[in-house]
Amino acid sequence: MTPIHQRPELAAPEGVTGQMSWGRSLTDRLERAFERAEGWTWMVIIAVYGGIATMLAAASWMPLWVVCPTLVVLGAWHAHMQHELLHGHPTSREWLNDLMASLPVTLLYPYSVYKRSHMDHHLSDLANPMDDPESFYVSPDAWARFGAIRRGVLLANNTLLGRFLIGPFFAAMSLYREQGAHLIRGDRRAWLDWTVHAVLVSVYLWTVSQVSGLSPWLYVVGVAYPALGLAMVRSFLEHRAVADHDQRTAVVEANWFWSLLFLNNNLHVMHHDRPGEPWYRLPRLYREQRDAVLQRNGNYVYAGYGDVTRRFLLTPKDVPVFQEKA
Fold first, then answer.
1. What is the SS3 assignment for 13?
2. Is residue 175 a part of any domain in this protein?
3. What burial class does residue 97 get, using C-beta atoms within 10 Å of its C-beta: 0-12 exposed, 13-18 middle, 19+ buried?
4. What is the number of structural domains in the chain?
5. Is 321 contained in some domain?
6. Mutual orientation of helices 148-157 and 160-184 as an angle, nearest 10°?
7. Which residue of 127, 212, 233, 244 shows the fewest CB atoms closer than 10 Å?
8. Does residue 96 belong to any structural domain of this protein?
9. What pTM value is reported for the model?
């Protein structure tokens, strides 16, 4: 019997095959151009800023129980967008990426300070409070000095609910102590960072109040602070204090919502392995290397944020003491 694709009555009309090949070729070229331009990252930037502008404009007639939670999610998304921008995406022009990241949606710190701190984090002894600026651990000596109340607060901060509720406060206090020392010493860069930040925050909060009618205090309490708390849901488990450096960085195999919100940084070990890789390529790399990655990181993996919540909502993930020989 003649194969179907060779039967004359079913053959494509003359010229159609060439047209189909040309169409596929055009589609391939467009996809490659979209990839080279980091189109997915541009779409996130547009969605984040477009979403924030839309919600602020709608705040005068929409109920606060819709406006504030939506802005919280967008604020957490903005924080992860900033993370992507500081790692050199979507353009090769650092000044342009920095400009797009500088809007102080979550208010806590200057983007320039966060950028330097995060770059130091990538070069640090991960989780070591003496070296890693993003560590929530303390030294054994500090733990020994602390009383029961302070230890209890640190243990509470090592639960998922605690990290959401008081994690931003801990991060702010640590940052302000370190930056305050720079300001007291007259560090010009620190003074420039915080002066620019103060101007941007003032202009941003004034604009928010004019466009949305939200008062600055309501924006701080109802949007900025919980947005940082939501962002810290991702960072809650990303590093742990163990002796083997390869086993310090986690993977959370999250669903599409959390993966998009966190721009795939829930696959955190992949980000540290390939910090220059754009966010949308990390899932494919992880799928291709999953077995080897989990073997190397000591199977430090969780089956989504439901799994994380069940285990650690009210239970500390560990005692927050960094031991050199953990």
1. coil
2. yes
3. buried
4. 1
5. no
6. 110
7. 244
8. yes
9. 0.90
